[in-house]
Amino acid sequence: MPHAAASGRLLVTGIGELVTNDPAPDREGGPLGILRDAALVADDGVITWIGRSGDAPSLEATAGSPHPHRIEVLDARGRAVIPGFVDSHTHLVFGGDRAEEFAARMAGRAYEAGGIRSTVAATREATDDELRARLAGFVRELHGQGTATFEVKTGYGLSVVDEERLARLAAEVTDEVTFLGAHVVPAEFTERAGGADGYVELVAGEMLQACKPHVRWVDAFCERGAFDAEQSRRVLEAGRAEGLGVRVHGNQLGEGDGVRLAVELDAASVDHCTYLSDADVAALAGSRTVATLLPGVEFSTRHPYPDARRLIDAGVTVALASDCNPGSSFTSSMPFCIALAVREMGMTPAEAVRAATAGGAAALRRTDVGVLRPGARADLALLDAPSHVHLAYRPGVPLVAETWKDGARVA
Ligand code: NIG
Ligand code: FE
What we know:
It is built from 14 helices and 17 strands. The protein is α/β, with parallel strands linked by helices and about 400 residues long. Strands 1, 2, 3, 4, 5, 15, 16 and 17 form an eight-stranded mixed beta sheet that branches. The protein has a seven-stranded parallel beta sheet with strand order 8-9-10-11-12-13-14. The two termini are about 20 Å apart. The site of N-(iminomethyl)-L-glutamic acid has 13 residues, from helix 3. Catalyzes the hydrolytic cleavage of the carbon-nitrogen bond in imidazolone-5-propanoate to yield N-formimidoyl-L-glutamate. It is the third step in the universal histidine degradation pathway. InterPro entries: Amidohydro-rel (IPR006680), HutI (IPR005920), Metal-dep_hydrolase_composite (IPR011059), Metal_Hydrolase (IPR032466).
């Protein structure tokens, strides 16, 4: 189990602005469902009450809870509380880094999917304990920046043994693990060794079987330099036949088949969506597939930012995620992604905060996170600020004071 829920009662009082993502007539902020001067109660990690501070159960009443002896009180002292961020896209199990590649890019070199292979080599060399320690460090970073729920992909192993290893290690820290054997074709799959199609058969067969016990999702990088639509479909359908949910990396480096394929397969999410045709936008708008935008990638590859405004205006559900990985986006910060989305992608602060919470939950097809209402998990970020707007208004400032997950403080 990646994380133990709190047992007992948590009472959060004095919340100046509570972003619930649960709109109601007596709340402000449209879809953000903002309640002012609010309080929240959680029992055993699940929210049981939300309302005005003045109406909050007193400590005496709290003593009648199922766990009268374990009561924790958090006084927000007028600050804002939002749902813990849901980072629905990361690649956190890897060895080495690619600082040199980043520096070269900032000097003018283009980003290419092939850079992934150098991380594959470093990851294969790392021991389980080295990868575990690295992963634990990233989890601390995520929690420290307000993220309560996060997905982790495999994809830097690219052999049966190494992909199984990465899936197993990822499952030690999250329930949201994605099998991304179809990240790129590894160097050893030369044409004589079966080439891309031979590798795809391995991914859809033995590698999927080895990873299946540890993962909830299957993903494929459908992009020039990685896998074409037919190869991606082969892997995604094999995963789906094993009961895995589908997600797709697509339309990152140019227009392509990723969005179309994702919608056709009813994927939970198609991620990147940087280069979209009108037909892609229309297909997304008529589907359940979330468009997950990853502005850290455009920041560190110098591609143009995705146009969130175009998607939102067309009625597409948008999520924001970090894509934290050593190549295209080495940030674990959802506040940074929110600031970029507001400044560069046409989102309002409210839309960006919602995309980083409820949007991420939708991309993972979860209804118990990314929202604060009775029955949802008590996953909260307490901001050192009076309002969620400050996340974009004060870029680069560490505004997350505390992060709580399942009613327990994690940062
Ligand atoms: O999401 N797009 C494919 N995979 C990663 C990049 C991985 C890498 O460059 O190491 C991404 O951007
Ligand atoms: Fe990615």
